[in-house]
Amino acid sequence: MSLTLRYMRLADIQQVAAIDQSCFQPPWSRDSYIFEINESRISHMVVLDSGAHQPPPQRNGWRSHLSDMLRGGRPAPNGQGDIIGYGGLWKIEGEAHISTIATHPRWRGKGFGEILLAGMFGKALRLNAEFIVLEVRVSNAVAQSLYQKYGFSRFGRRRNYYRSDNEDAWEMRVALDKDTRRRFARLYDELLAKHDFRDSYSWNARPWR
Predict the structure, then answer these.
(1) Residue 55 confidence (pLDDT) above 60
(2) Which distant-in-sequence residues (6+ apart) come within 8 Å of 37 by Cβ?
């Protein structure tokens, strides 16, 4: 399996919506995904593709990706496999907001959620964000541990945030300062070495319709 991070396409919506349905209540509507992909000027939707018919994954680390970014990035591959997970990032002025992130239930526990998180972290850096914000269930200790690994800390508590059961959410955020960037460079290279994925999302410009 040759994993690829890439921008979400309209053709991905059926698979993405199925994952969403299995992970969240209420899930996003199909129209919401269409809007995020085609119309929203602040959205950067990502999928982790299983890599059917993809070129061999790149072994370049963070610093090589920075060089690629300055040269305009590499083109995204055209193939499509099964969608393992997806995420969404909104860039609003200096804030990058992770709007959603999920992995298909059968692929959980394999580190694929971290790849999605790292991709959106890199995209926030690419977009010159000053900090990243997200919300997470107060009961989701596993996700909180992953976010803390990347430097996120609790900023506030949002009461009754989740409509399905009125559970509270922690708002977590991380400032993209020099220490955070150094930590991310190390974690990204370690993650790339472990999973050998291709990143055609973080370093590439959004494909506008």
Answers:
(1) no
(2) 8, 9, 10, 13, 43, 45, 209
Give the residue carrying structure tokens 């860039």.
Answer: 91
Q: Name the fold adopted by 4-199.
A: Aminopeptidase (3.40.630)
| DSSP type of residue 190 | H
In sequence order, what are the beta bridge partners of 119? none
**pLDDT for 106-157, tens place per residue?**
999 999 999 999 999 999 999 999 999 999 999 999 999 999 999 999 999 9
Q: Which two tokens stand for residue 1?
A: 């399996």
Contacts of residue 203, defined as CB under 8 A and 6 or more positions apart, other chains included, come to 65, 68, 69, 73, 74, 122, 126
Distance CA(1)–CA(81), nearest Å, equals: 10
pTM for the whole structure: 0.86
